[in-house]
Amino acid sequence: MASVEIVKEGYIGYIVLNRPEKLNAFTWEMYGKLCEVVDKVEEDDEIRVVIIKGAGRCFSAGFDLAEPGMDNHMELRRRYDRLANLSRRKIWNLPKPTIAQVHSHCLGGGHEVALSCDFCFVEESANMGVPEIKFGLGSAFFAMPYMINLRKCREYLLTGKSYNGKTAEEIGIANKCVPLDELDSTVREFAKELAMVPFSSMTLQKRAINRAIDAMGFACQNEQWIDYSCLGVLWKTEEVEQFNKQVAEHGIKAAIKWRNDYFENMMK
Fold first, then answer.
1. CA triple 209-164-107, angle to 5 deg
2. Do the bridges between strand 4-9 and strand 98-102 make them parallel or antiparallel, or are there none, so unpaired?
3. pTM for this predicted structure
4. I need a labelling partner for 86 at 20 to 30 A (CA). Which of 62, 108, 134, 210 fits?
């Protein structure tokens, strides 16, 4: 079973994140598969609109922390260039319109895949956010400062806290928030609206929008931030080292509990 699949339904090409038993958590290999799949939907002339969604219980719980850690910042940089951020840049620059269809968890790396889409539709109980700062990391695809106001951007990126579907619509991350049982039909209706736009004008207009964002520094800032982020593996701290040890020895749930207890004890 492929970790990322294409499902065609007429003019719609669904890219399905397909590790439901792991809540569609990303591995480096899965990012590579996503790159391949995006190339395939670009080359398929029958597909006019691309919808990215998750199989099973959620969109994506983020990066799979069971993946081996990495202390070599140069190798980490290469993996972002050739896998993780490459997949997000491919989605961002895809000539065809893209829609993130988000249900339940949409966190970390999964959140940034959703941000790389042109549009985002979410269900009311969606659980969205970038919790990496809690683990000594940070956002890898730095799009939020270009999408929402500065106060809210700082609130979510500097605390790592999550927000629901209604908030996603209010702050400008999502185009629309709907009940779960209406999500699929709402996205399909919007896909139909997009498909009725001539492809050539759609492509040129999307490029113009992306270039306007690049003129604000988006592409350069993303590259610069990845450099800093990868160098962050050299910035060892006691709490990050202990957190990673807890993940390796006891799993992510135990590590999160350890982290929460650690900081609560510090603040007493």
1. 70
2. unpaired
3. 0.90
4. 134
Strand spans (E) along the chain: 4-9, 12-17, 49-54, 98-102, 105-107, 119-123, 127-129, 176-178
Contact 63, 81 (CB under 8 A): no
Q: Please give the structure tokens belonging to residue 127.
A: 């659980």
Could you report how far apart the first and last alpha carbons of the chain are, in Å? 49
Looking only at the bridges linking them, the beta strands covering 127-129 and 105-107 are parallel
pLDDT in tens, 16-59: 999 999 999 999 999 999 999 999 999 999 999 999 999 999 99
**Beta strands 49-54 and 119-123: pairing type?**
unpaired
- Is residue 21 exposed (0-12), middle (13-18) or buried (19+ Cβ within 10 Å)? exposed
Write out pLDDT tens, residues 52-99: 999 999 999 999 988 876 667 788 888 888 898 999 999 999 999 999
Token pair listed for 183: 């999500």
Neighbours of 97 (CB within 10 A): 23
Sequence-distant (≥ 6) Cβ neighbours of residue 168 within 8 angstroms: 102, 120, 122, 126, 128, 174, 177
